[in-house]
UniProtKB/TrEMBL annotation, chain A:
Belongs to the bacterial solute-binding protein 1 family. SUPFAM superfamilies: Periplasmic binding protein-like II (SSF53850). InterPro entries: SBP (IPR006059). GO terms for biological process: maltodextrin transmembrane transport; maltose transport. The keyword Transport applies. Keywords: Signal, Transport. This is Carbohydrate ABC transporter substrate-binding protein (CUT1 family). It holds the Pfam family SBP_bac_1. The lineage of its organism: Bacteria, Bacillati, Bacillota, Clostridia, Lachnospirales. It comes from Kineothrix alysoides. GO terms for cellular component: ATP-binding cassette (ABC) transporter complex, substrate-binding subunit-containing. Residues 1-23 form the signal peptide. GO terms for molecular function: maltose binding.
UniProtKB/TrEMBL annotation, chain B:
CDD domains: TM_PBP2. It holds the Pfam family BPD_transp_1. The lineage of its organism: Bacteria, Bacillati, Bacillota, Clostridia, Lachnospirales. The chain crosses the membrane at residues 9-28, 72-93, 105-131, 151-174, 206-226, 261-280. This is Carbohydrate ABC transporter membrane protein 1 (CUT1 family). It comes from Kineothrix alysoides. One of its GO terms (cellular component) is plasma membrane.
From TrEMBL, chain C:
It comes from the Bacteria. InterPro entries: MetI-like, MetI-like_sf. This is Raffinose/stachyose/melibiose transport system permease protein. GO terms for cellular component: plasma membrane. SUPFAM superfamilies: MetI-like. The chain crosses the membrane at residues 15-36, 71-97, 109-130, 142-165, 186-211, 244-265. CDD domains: TM_PBP2. Pfam families: BPD_transp_1. It is a multi-pass membrane protein. One of its GO terms (biological process) is transmembrane transport.
Length: 431, 295, 280
């Protein structure tokens, strides 16, 4: 416990330094003070605030969120809140898009910051942070600047809340059983794959048809590091060689027997179960995957090994959702203040600490961490700013789908990595 | 004679047509217009007019070709097996005295259970590692099989789809049998028509109308095949080889957010559906049509 | 001759029973599997799906009941799907009657249009539909779900009812006509009662599809108190992945009322038969 506390302190310092905002914002008034002072100014006009979050019914965060909303209502008796929170599935996304399409949008919304939001941003549906800060200079100044996501127009619109990272999950007990080192380098990874395969253990739990994204991203990352990973090729000539090398590893790994026999058609929950049940040694997944792991002492999280260097610390991580204030609400002078207050509240450190360990600001130290939690925490913290968002946060839709649907054919040698990537980038730049 | 005054059609057809025109046809016309523009998200505005570009693209799209081919196979299977099994079950249930209610109830089960649950069940049958089928094979000392390999997958997806909705046609056809006035059967019995004869000369001809309806529904239903197929084999797994038009339309609309392309697939589905069901009906109902016209 | 004939008939009967029992086994199996698995935690469903639960518990049901007010959701489902069903039956039987009894120009086109609309995917039409729902101030209201559902289920109902009504003996109608009955009288006092079995079959499917139509429900309804059962239980899948135990429990909870409706409707088919026979 003590250990983790001191650890946290180090990390926090690092994050503050990295974010470069420590001194600048050192004098920021506590959020609550801002609220109370501004509240008195605004007349007690009856306001109805329509809010939407992505906290679904079984998401532990929903309860925290609901309590917070209740508290907000108590503190602001003139504000009525109509909240329409729901798990962010396909129907929900359609609903949000339908709402914005017909002018039925909410005032404040927790929504994606990736390609899902571009259409809405382009239409001018949201107000950007800079504009908000013209009127409210202290607006969410406790959030680290590097955690905001830039929209295609270069502006920032959403206040990040709950983040994520992606990394390699290893059943450490299986590694120990076969006297294998954890794969901190590419060679160790290949040795592990070979050994596991010989002993009837599936090296990688992955499905190429259902959520294969992690595998693609991490092979690109392994081959070229974070800088190449960040590339956004404007033409097929600009595709980094490492992307091709990374994708070619699919075939190498497939030939070594690194994947399940039914990798092309099995499903995500089933391969997850193979990992949980120790039928598979490794899997690549997001931080949310930790929630389902029961054996928290023998499973560890680590950065996916690099092909070019040992002990890589680079990971895929970031904040792909955040709180937006809609233009419609911002332009309503009665609602503006209430929206700002609301977003301040649901992005406050107190709130975030209750719903995540991957927060965009300083949060209290998580205590009593298991081996698994600790390894995940270390992975995220050691990465610092050596992180990048997933590729599909930039290359989305048709282009990304062309990539995803081709990996089975690349692994089996029916298609060449270069051909596929050329096609992907062609589609991407046509749009 | 009695049905000559067509003014009655106003109150007969009016209410339904108003609802359908406003909430179905008008929106679908908008959908067709969308297919001529570039639309990059549900509810997004029509940006650039691209004319028939999407349709040209469809004609050259390999995945579309796979989808059409698989949907064709699916269509034959639904018409032959789904309707066939439905008919067989209905005739059998009609022939037994005890347990009618029981069979009628349990045959309905697969229809009401969600595609997510049925899909999960079949995925647990098919799983290579620890799936039920392979457990049985292992117990029999046989090597496990990759049930969703390139060669087997399509069959393994069609099977549960045919199975799960056979009960739908059972219900419709059984209703058709119940509709046959019992005096017809009684007089047939006096003429010595029992068993196969009764079916061939009495039941089947009287069911032609219902079976024709079932064929129309099976043709259109096979074009809509989507949810169960998607749960069992997302993205037309393996390697896009098991796409149906329904799943491909879903993928382009929701995964790729290529709304205009999805819209053009939707139109193709409707056109194929209308054409094929008209042909099927002409083959099936030629006799019946004549009866209808003589009315 | 008597005895072999009897044994032959008995053998045929048992073959029929064997066929029916085999099919019944395949249809009962998933339901039993669901019930058994609904008593397991999510992980156990994937790891040992076809065994009895190691320690059966009702946590999944308790969870489903605790997280939300499921009784209100049942009531919402009943209102939405019930009203949709009644409106579809009324409108569709009028259309089916009109199309099977009258000859007019463009009838074939109307029928083709109806068949075509069977294949309109909900997501292709949703945006204009939703725009109208908003303009009519029906967002978050049951009626906002009902109207689009009526529209999308009408074509199915018309197609099926046409098939049945075409086969109704027209002689009865003719004699009623000669006795001075008008078209509306014939429709309401003869066609509708005679079509009861078909109406019951159509009703159950319209009810079922309306009940399961998550897409329209999720887009029009926002307030959890207005949610029907499917929309409410759909919430079980969160960003932590689907909880299969909760899913199995909620499928059971979703399925049971619809089975009750089905059994009720089936009874009605038999009743329809007898009453129809008397009238006929």
């Amino acid at each position: 416990m003590k250990n983790s506390k001191s650890f946290m302190a180090v990390i926090l310092c690092m994050l503050i330094v990295l974010s470069g905002c420590g001194a600048q914002n050192g004098t920021a008034a506590p959020v609550n003070d801002v609220e109370s002072s501004t509240q008195e100014e605004s007349a007690k006009k009856e306001i109805t605030l329509k809010t939407v979050s992505m906290f679904g019914a079984t998401d532990p965060a929903l309860e925290v969120y609901n309590q917070t909303v209740e508290q907000f209502k108590k503190d602001n008796s003139n504000i009525k809140i109509v909240d329409e929170s729901s798990a962010s599935n396909e129907e929900w996304k359609s609903r949000i898009k339908a709402d914005f399409a017909v002018g039925n949008e909410p005032d404040v919304i927790l929504y994606f910051t990736d390609a899902n939001s571009y259409e809405l941003i382009e239409k001018g549906s949201f107000v950007d942070i800079e504009t908000i800060r013209k009127d409210y200079p202290d607006f969410v100044d406790h959030i680290f600047p590097h955690t905001f996501t830039n929209a295609p127009d270069g502006k920032q619109y959403a206040v990040p809340t709950r983040g994520f990272y992606e990394a390699l999950f290893c059943n450490k007990d299986l590694f120990d059983q076969y006297n294998l080192e954890l794969p901190t380098s590419w060679d160790k990874l290949l040795t592990a794959v070979e050994t596991f395969n010989q002993n009837g253990i599936v090296p990688f739990a992955v499905s190429f048809s259902d959520v294969p994204h992690y595998m693609i991203e991490h092979l690109v990352l392994a081959a070229g590091g974070i800088d190449d990973h960040k590339a956004v090729p404007a033409s097929p000539d600009e595709i980094p060689d490492s992307w091709i090398t990374g994708m070619e590893q699919l075939r190498v790994l497939n030939d070594m027997g690194a994947f399940p026999v039914d990798v092309n058609a099995t499903t995500y929950p089933l391969v997850g179960e193979m990992f949980y049940g120790k039928q598979a040694a490794m899997t690549i997944d997001g931080s949310w995957f930790m929630g389902g792991i029961e054996d928290k002492e023998n499973v560890v999280v680590m950065p996916f090994p690099s092909m070019v260097k040992e002990n890589s610390e680079e990971i895929i991580a970031g904040f792909t959702s955040g709180w937006y204030i809609t233009k419609k609400a911002w332009d309503d002078p009665d609602k503006r203040q209430a929206c700002v207050d609301f977003v301040e509240m649901v992005s406050s450190p107190e709130f975030l600490a209750k719903i995540t360990t991957v927060a965009p600001c300083e949060i209290p130290v998580p205590s009593d961490m298991t081996v698994l939690d600790q390894s995940g925490f270390d992975t995220f913290v050691n990465a610092g700013e050596k992180t990048d968002l997933p590729i599909d946060s930039r290359i989305a839709g048709e282009a990304w789908n062309a990539w995803v649907t081709s990996i089975g054919s690349i692994a089996e040698g029916e298609k060449q990595a270069k051909e596929v990537l050329t096609e992907v980038i062609d589609i991407f730049n046509k749009k | 004679m009695m049905y000559k005054k067509n003014s009655h059609l106003i109150w007969l057809l009016g209410p339904a047509l108003i609802v359908m025109v406003v909430f179905l046809y008008y929106p679908f016309v908008m959908n067709i217009i969308n297919s001529l523009y570039d639309v990059n998200g549900l509810g997004a505005s029509r940006e650039i007019f691209i004319g028939f570009e999407n349709y040209r693209k469809l004609a050259a799209d390999k995945e579309m070709f796979t989808s059409v081919k698989n949907t064709g196979i699916m269509m034959v299977c639904t018409v032959v097996f789904q309707v066939g099994i439905g008919l067989a079950l209905a005739v059998c249930v009609d022939a037994v005295r005890r347990g009618k209610e029981f069979f009628k109830t349990v045959f309905f089960f697969p229809i009401v259970i969600s595609a997510t649950a049925i899909g999960l069940l079949f995925n647990l049958f098919y799983a290579y590692y620890g799936g039920m089928f392979n457990q049985i094979l292992t117990a029999l000392n046989k090597a496990p099989i990759n049930w969703k390999s390139d060669s087997l997958a399509l069959l393994m997806i069609i099977l549960p789809i045919v199975w799960s909705y056979a009960g739908f046609y059972f219900v419709l056809i059984f209703t058709g049998i119940s509709n046959i006035p019992s005096d017809i059967f009684e007089s047939a019995l006096l003429d010595g028509a029992v068993g196969w004869k009764k079916f061939r000369y009495i039941t089947f001809p009287l069911l032609k109308g219902v079976i024709g309806t079932c064929v129309t529904l099976a043709v259109t239903g096979s074009l809509k095949v989507f949810d169960l197929a998607w749960v069992i084999a997302p993205r037309g797994a393996p390697k896009g080889s098991t796409h149906f038009m329904g799943t491909y339309m879903y993928e382009t609309t929701f995964i790729e957010e290529n709304i205009d392309y999805g819209a053009s697939i939707a139109l193709i589905i409707v056109i194929i559906g209308v054409v094929v069901s008209q042909i099927a009906n002409r083959l099936f109902r030629d006799k019946e049509m004549k009866n209808g016209n003589s009315r | 001759m008597e005895i072999p004939g009897k044994t032959l008939a008995a053998a045929k009967k048992s073959i029929i029973y064997i066929i029916l029992s085999i099919w019944a086994f395949t249809t009962i199996f998933p339901f039993v599997w669901l019930i058994i698995n609904s008593l397991k935690p999510s992980r156990e469903i994937l790891s040992s799906s076809f065994t009895l639960p190691a320690a059966p518990n009702f946590d999944n049901y308790i969870n489903a009941f605790n997280k939300q007010n499921i009784l209100v959701a049942y009531a919402n489902s009943l209102i939405i799907s019930g009203v949709t069903m009644i409106m579809v039956l009324l409108f569709a039987s009028l259309v089916a009657y009109g199309l099977t009894r009258f000859e007019f120009k463009g009838k074939k086109i109307v029928i083709s249009l109806i068949i075509g609309s069977l294949m309109f995917p909900a997501f292709a039409t949703i945006i204009p539909v939703f725009r109208m729902v908003v303009q009519m101030h029906l967002v978050n209201k049951h009626f906002g779900v009902i109207i689009p559902q009526v529209a999308s289920n009408l074509s199915f109902a018309v197609i099926v009812l046409m098939g049945f009504m075409r086969d109704l003996p027209i002689e009865v109608e003719e004699s009623a006509f000669i006795d001075g009955a008008g078209v509306s009288k014939i429709f309401f006092s003869m066609i509708l009662p005679l079509s009861r079995p078909a109406l019951a079959s159509v009703a159950i499917f319209v009810f079922l599809w309306s009940y399961n139509d998550l897409f329209t429900q999720m887009i029009v309804l926002r307030n959890r108190n207005m949610f029907p059962v499917c929309a409410l239980l759909n919430e079980i899948s969160s960003r932590y992945g689907t909880d299969f135990g909760l899913m199995a429990a909620s499928v059971v909870l979703v399925v049971i009322p619809i089975l009750i409706v089905y059994i009720f409707m089936q009874k009605n088919i038999i009743k329809g038969l007898t009453s129809g026979a008397i009238k006929g």
